[in-house]
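Practice problem: predict the structure.
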Amino acid sequence: MKKKIWGTLDPFYEPGPFLGRIVANTGFLNALLRLDPYDEYHFFVSSEKIAFHCQNYFRKKFKTTLSKISFFPRINLIQNISAHPYHVFHLSDCINYPAHLARLRNKYSERIFPVTSVTHSLSYSNYSHMLLKQLWPGWSVRDAIVCSSDCGRQVLKKYFDNLRIEYGLDNRFMPPLLKHIPLGIDSGKNHGGKSIQSTEKFIPDDKINILCFGRISCYSKMDLLPILKSFQLAKIYGLDTNAVRLILAGGVDQKDDTIKKLLLFAKNIGVELEIIPNPDEQTKELLLRDTHIFLSMSDNPQETFGLTILEAQSAGLPVIASDYNGYRELIAHNENGLLIPTLGPDRTEYIDDLAPLIFDSESHLLLAQSCGFDLHVLAKTLIRLIAEPGLRKAIGDNGKANASQYTWDKIIQSYISFWEELNNLDELKPLKDQKHPVHTSYSDIFSHYTTDCWINSVVSLSKLGRAVYREKDHLVIYSGLSHFIDKEKIRMLLFLSRAPIKTPILIARLCATLDLDQDISRLIISWAIKQGLLQTS
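Answer:
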């Protein structure tokens, strides 16, 4: 039985702040390696530094699986794809590499393995350009983009439909399959701080604590000022604001003066506001443990799913959220959460035209400021939930039951089943010779740069080449070439070139002797000519 090898170009694990993408990718990787369904795991990361960080993480986290995990330079990708019949290659983002990887798979692999990737944020202005690369005839029926929400799936479908219409592309130019599999939360964590031994309150329980967790940024997460204005309205409607405390926790840009503005506004309307910048994972657990209501009013198109919603539900907190993007897929209104209606613009042409010429943070601010929620409904919902502890408990219990369906251990089973389904599909169309239009053919495009090309020459050993062959001189090979060129390959090349030989014959003999791809043989010959080991005539 052939080995089942799982491959990727991405580390999935990234040290750094708790951004949603990083948390989601790490959760996926942890669940995959805990279950350990494959014989080997091949990582083709972009640098030795990234490989080093990942290896340290795996040593601490997955000692029993470590022998199955291998890291390779990405420059060795073609050789590995040629040598191993991979079961699947899965990428941590759907934007950059899927089509390029599929092209390599089509050309070099002995079998058409699935190439899959996953969505995160989908709203950056250059994504139309990046997604255009994914409209090409070279996709297999086994290839797919996994969408974390159905909202995200619809976004991608609209992107691809619009690109095909605007560029006038026919039915050959289609995207890969779009498949909905949600993100998950780690079942190994006790969300809500139950894993923390101390019973001392991190946040006092003398008031109803309302937590809003996420980047404190009107550019990239949500505008928090309308939330405070809803508290202002709730006060007018009769809420005793002295009985509540609003807690904002999340990443903070030190150059942003948003916090000062929020604190000043809260003081003016008589609402106690506590801000916890850049909390670590333990602080997040304590906050979920010590608060009574979770509030998330996302208004920014960069949000696609909503992991914090699931984490709050898992902690048993009643959730109030904007009826926006993937949030509505995680919340059944009046059952396991409460949704606040949102309103968006009918057109955004001004922003559309400007977005490619300004920073994404600026365009996202404009987009977010064009989307609002019903402040009056939020105010009344807060009053209702604050006044009814029984309702808070019922919604919190239902939310906890809902979150239990989204553990990574369950979600990873969906991935494994999906990869099996893709592998069992029959590929009917020939893909090997299907070029990708954005792969630069350097030899064609820059052919006029050189005086001539050596392909139709006769080559033979030079005096320098004879000296190297007799080991009277030594080779200097740059580290960036060592994956393709080494002493033994060069020695065989020089052996085959002892007498004058036509280059097409030399290529064929070098390929046959060393079991090399023709392009690698050409690279070796070019290098030998450049270094003066071979001379042309």
